[in-house]
Fold:
Amino acid sequence: MEPSVEAWLAYGWADLRAAQTLYRAGHYAACAFHCHQALEKGLKAVWTRVRGKEPPRVHNLRLLAEHLNGLNPPPVVMEAVLEATPHYVTARMPGVPGGELGRYTREYTLHLLTLVEEAWQWCSLNAK
Structure:
């Protein structure tokens, strides 16, 4: 495995563990942000492996997932991409449409975390 792939996976795994810890502690908006970060880094690990170069410095999960050189992510990954995308901004910026802290309920955040955990499995398998 290339060192850059390993680095993306290590940092993504750290974000996923942070998301799980934040969820258990009841910090749902912060959990949602780290879900986005974990998925972003997982997709960048796959990008690096299949394209043979560093991924673009973007936070657009859809762009990353749709440009994996013909490697088609399964529906659960695309669902996680669509669900997690807004949380890069909405989970940490007041006044952003859709960014009200009340949105991040225990139930919603568990749904998001579960999707991202499943997508992470696909990313980690396809990055190796």
